[in-house]
Design goal:
By secondary structure, this protein is of the alpha/beta class. It contains 31 helices and ten strands. The strands form two sheets. The protein has a six-stranded parallel sheet, with helices on both faces. Strands 7-10-8-9 form a four-stranded antiparallel sheet. The two termini are about 60 Å apart.
């Protein structure tokens, strides 16, 4: 039996593999590869796919799965930590871009509804591309990374009301007030259903499903919830995408959300690939070539609007100009949710065919430029920030600086901690415990305000500026610890410190070993790469488990560090101590084992009668019985069911004894 859909699927997947392999070689985003696949396979390319409607049906499922996953990954508790960035930064970026884009479109005689809708499209950046690039660069937890993440989250949320407002922008709707009220009532109904389901229905349902221990039933239940809620919102006249997002929120409030996400993720990856391929199929290459100057001009206009507004949003959040510019550059492109929204624009007549082709062309160009823009964003931000006056700061930031500088106590022989993330906090705790004076420099104004109320000596500022370092008496400090997640800023801070003082001992935390040499050449005294230090800590605990002497373990780790981690990089150990380490490993094991057995030859009688040492070749050195630890072990000591016994012996003997304790 012939299946035309199967032919199209095989063509798309096969072509996508080839294109994406090529894109990966040049380190270009996978999404862009899917778009190019669609361009090649579509009717305006090689016309390899005949029935685009079937592909669009698969794409619709991809949209549902995409929004479903986003809903499941939503954690209101985690988002509360960056709520100011999401609400203030996100709202400023989205509504600012809408306003500017709509104003420009009005100049070209578009209707108000069309102008606002185009503003909707322009304001939505690419969550998938930007976050992937930030993760690859290790900058997701940097100051600009957190701002970008917060703004993208707001965009993901606001796309839902944008879809709801699309039909109202046509201007042909009678009784707009009544329509808005009806839409509001429908929205309230959906929210009520979501809250009730999340609190009472779904947790009990999933608990019953999990009790069956059937993986197939669990996946079926999760997918069924997704499509049932999507169908429910569709029946109310709302979008399928909204229903999928709400379904994800319902699942996210259950304790099974992580497992559900991992199970559904492969389905999302397959179906969303069809979504991006279907978008690429719509691009008319002939139109693009004929109107290339206009497309390039519109792409530049989109870049300027989104970059300026996102930069302003970061400035309102009181981040320095350099950080704000990086945020603006990262969010200039038109993203995947704009494609979803554009479908509604076509169906409601808000986008004409020619406007839609311009939109597709600009979107593809901006997505293609994003990896290169992010690659050079730090250099661009550094160049612009150097050209601006030194006092180019918003009043709120100047006020925050001055307030901190007025209150900061004079210190000497102290630690300067730059960055108050996890590492910075731990250094501060250790310094406080050791009664060593310290000062903190941090760029997050909210964190600074909170910690100053807690009594911390913390200054709001960007440590790349020499005046900030001077105010924390860097020239009188003994140690400077740079614990931030921005590699470029780290290098600039090292250089700034060395311009002021050569005697301060600079310790740098970095993520990757490749960054070590640059930091050393700029003047760092010690560079601690996270990826290898984590490995050393893990292996240290492994060696402890093998009962190596503590001084041997310390010599081992010291030699790894002194060789700049050459052993871990090349796996060719140098030095006799490391080479001989394996031969010194003792063939002995210490284990803690719980007694489950009721065997009367083991439990309920004195150890001298049980004769466990001769029978199993092990020695019991301690017993934990409920809250009591028994260390005085002798021949009169009894073992009881439920005890935890600490035994020493050869690995095989310990294993045999463990099996004996498990037997009924």
């Amino acid at each position: 039996m012939e299946m035309p859909l199967l032919d199209d699927v095989v063509i798309i997947l096969g072509l996508a593999v080839v294109v994406i392999l090529l894109f990966q070689r040049f380190k270009l985003p996978t999404i862009l590869g899917f778009l190019i696949t669609g361009v090649i396979a579509g009717p305006h390319g090689l016309s390899l796919v005949q029935d685009i409607h079937n592909i669009e049906m698969l794409a619709e499922i991809g949209v549902i799965m995409l929004l479903f996953i986003i809903g499941m990954e939503f954690s209101l508790r985690k988002l509360a930590l960056i709520k100011r960035i999401i609400l203030l930064g996100g709202a400023t970026q989205v509504f600012g871009s809408i306003f500017l884009a709509a104003a420009v479109m009005q100049l070209f005689n578009y209707s108000l509804g069309q102008s606002v809708f185009i503003g909707f499209l322009i304001s939505l950046s690419s969550t998938a591309i930007v976050l992937k690039l930030l993760q690859d660069k290790g900058e997701i937890n940097s100051p600009h990374g957190k701002v970008i993440l917060g703004i993208l989250i707001f965009q993901d949320i606001i796309v839902v009301p944008m879809m709801l407002l699309a039909p109202l922008l046509t201007g042909d709707v009678d009784n707009i007030g009544l329509k808005l009220l009806l839409m509001l009532l429908k929205g309230v109904l959906v929210i009520v259903v979501v809250l009730l389901s999340a609190r009472y229905v779904v947790p009990k349902l999933l608990y019953s499903v999990v009790q069956t221990r059937s993986k197939e039933l669990f996946i079926l239940s999760i997918v069924a919830i997704c499509f049932m809620v999507a169908w429910f919102t569709s029946m109310l006249g709302l979008s399928l995408a909204l229903g999928a997002f709400m379904a994800g929120l319902i699942i996210s409030e259950s304790e099974y959300s992580h497992q559900a996400t991992s199970n559904v993720l492969p389905f999302r990856e397959i179906f969303t690939s069809f979504f991006f391929v279907s978008i690429g199929m719509l691009l008319d290459v002939t139109f693009l070539m004929e109107h290339l100057p206009v497309v390039l001009l519109l792409t530049i206009g989109t870049f300027l609007i989104n970059t300026m507004v996102a930069t302003l949003a970061a400035r309102l959040l009181q981040y320095p100009i350099r950080t704000a510019i990086i945020v603006g550059i990262a969010l200039f492109q038109v993203g995947e949710f704009a494609f979803i929204l554009s479908k509604a624009g076509i169906s409601y007549g808000l986008l004409t065919p020619i406007t839609y082709q311009y939109f597709l062309s600009v979107s593809l160009f901006s997505m293609a430029l994003t990896p290169f823009a992010l690659q050079y964003s730090h250099q661009i931000a550094n160049f612009i920030s150097k050209k601006l006056p030194s006092n180019f700061e918003p009043k709120a930031v100047i006020s925050a600086y001055q307030s901190d500088l007025d209150e900061l106590p004079e210190m000497e022989d102290h630690i300067v901690i730059i960055g108050y993330g996890i590492n910075g906090r731990n250094v501060a705790k250790a310094a406080r415990y050791a009664h060593i004076p310290y000062t903190i420099v941090e760029m997050n104004a909210v964190t600074v305000k909170r910690e100053r109320q807690n009594g911390e000596h913390i200054l709001f500022g960007d440590a790349v500026h020499g005046n900030i370092l001077a105010h924390v008496n860097i020239h009188k400090a003994r140690v400077a610890v740079i614990a931030i997640s921005d590699p470029d800023s780290t290098k600039r801070i090292i250089a700034a410190i060395r311009e002021i003082s050569q005697k301060v001992h600079v310790i740098v935390r970095t993520r990757f070993v490749e960054e070590m040499q640059d930091n050393y050449s700029l003047g760092a005294n010690e560079v601690i790469p996270e990826e290898f230090e984590t490995s050393i800590e893990i292996f240290t605990r492994v060696l402890n488990k093998y009962l190596l002497p503590q001084d041997d373990i310390e010599n081992f780790t010291r030699q790894i560090r002194s060789d700049n981690y050459d052993m871990l990089r090349s796996m060719q150990p140098s030095g006799s101590k490391i080479n001989n380490l394996s031969s010194e490993l003792p063939d002995i094991e210490v284990a803690s084992l719980r007694i489950y057995t009721t065997d009367e030859t083991i439990v309920g009688q004195p150890l001298e009668k049980a004769n466990l040492r001769d029978r199993y070749n092990i020695t019991i050195v301690a017993i934990k019985r409920q809250a009591q630890t028994i260390l005085d072990i002798n021949g009169h000591t009894n073992l009881l069911q439920g005890d935890v016994v600490y035994v020493v012996g050869l690995p095989d003997d310990v294993y045999n004894f463990e099996n004996a304790l498990k037997e009924a």
